[in-house]
Amino acid sequence: MDILQEIVAHKREELTRMRVPKQSLREALLQSDTGIIAEFKRRSPSKGWIKEDGRADLIPLAYQQNGAAALSILTDKHYFGGHDDFIRSARQSGVTLPILYKNFVIDEFQLYEAVLCGASAVLLIAACLSVQQCAALLAKAHELGLEVLLEMHSEAELEYAKLVPDLCGINNRNLGTFVTDVSNSFHMADKLRSIFSTGGTAPVLVSESGISDPDTVRALRAAGYRGFLIGETFMKTSDPGRALNEFIAKIHSL
């Protein structure tokens, strides 16, 4: 057993003592009537600081208390002002929901880091990886007990879906232009259905970015999506937990 494996084994024991269950992001979304993955995001490359003083020991727990199905926490430091410690802080504050480790994961060392800080799943971005790299990281993540949300943006990346990750995310934001268009999720849903129409266990579909209207969530659910990653809509308010609560109430009233 190498040093990284020893550290991961120790961390798993620590999480067990903390009574933090290793919940499934996939199952949490399938069982939820809203499917909202509420995101803790203090900064973005296009908008700058959204909530520079946002606290990881308060906001993620408030999301949990106000009905989130799961959480996403940015750990990238350079572009998003994130940190692995934000997931640790969330766990220590009492968060038991599945947490997505959101970063530009390009090396298996980052998968160990995700386990060590208490994440349940990791984001792999097709635009950052070759198909071979993605396949290797997906296999390693599963070996470490992590689920994988594989993010795609266009039809050109659909071949990655054939790796059959636990969840397929469609990012409505073009990473080159930062233009956001939710219609991309509807377009890609049709393409993904054709890939998985032959049977077997299909990945859970997640729509990411640009979702600010409960009506949009309703329409996306009708199109086959079960997860909706929403961050800025909540984080830009004075009380993200309350904003989530009000958003969910509107979904239920539709």
Characterise the protein shown here.
This protein has 254 residues and is α/β, with parallel strands linked by helices. The protein has a single domain (3-253), classed as Aldolase class I (TIM Barrel, Alpha-Beta Barrel). 40% of the residues lie in helices and 17% in strands. Helix 1 packs parallel to helix 5 and helix 3 runs parallel beside helix 10. The longest helix has 15 residues, at 3-17. The relative contact order is 0.15.
Care to give the gist of this entry?
With 254 residues, this protein is of the alpha/beta class. 40% of the residues lie in helices and 17% in strands.
- SSE series: HHEEEHEHEHEHEEHEHEHH
What shape does the CA trace take?
A: globular
Q: Architecture, CATH level 2?
A: Alpha-Beta Barrel
Largest sheet: 8 strands, parallel, barrel
In total, the number of domains comes to: 1
Side by side, the strands of the main sheet go 1-4-5-6-7-8-9-10
Number of helices: 10
- Whole-angstrom Rg: 17 Å
Count all strands and give the number: 10
Mean pLDDT: 91
Q: Uncertain spans, ≥5 residues at pLDDT below 50?
A: 16-20
Task: Briefly note the CATH topology name.
Answer: TIM Barrel
The portion of residues assigned to helices is 40-55%
Q: What is the CATH domain class?
A: Alpha Beta
CATH superfamily: Aldolase class I
- Percent strand equals 15-25%
Distance between the termini: 54 Å
Helix/strand-derived category reads alpha/beta
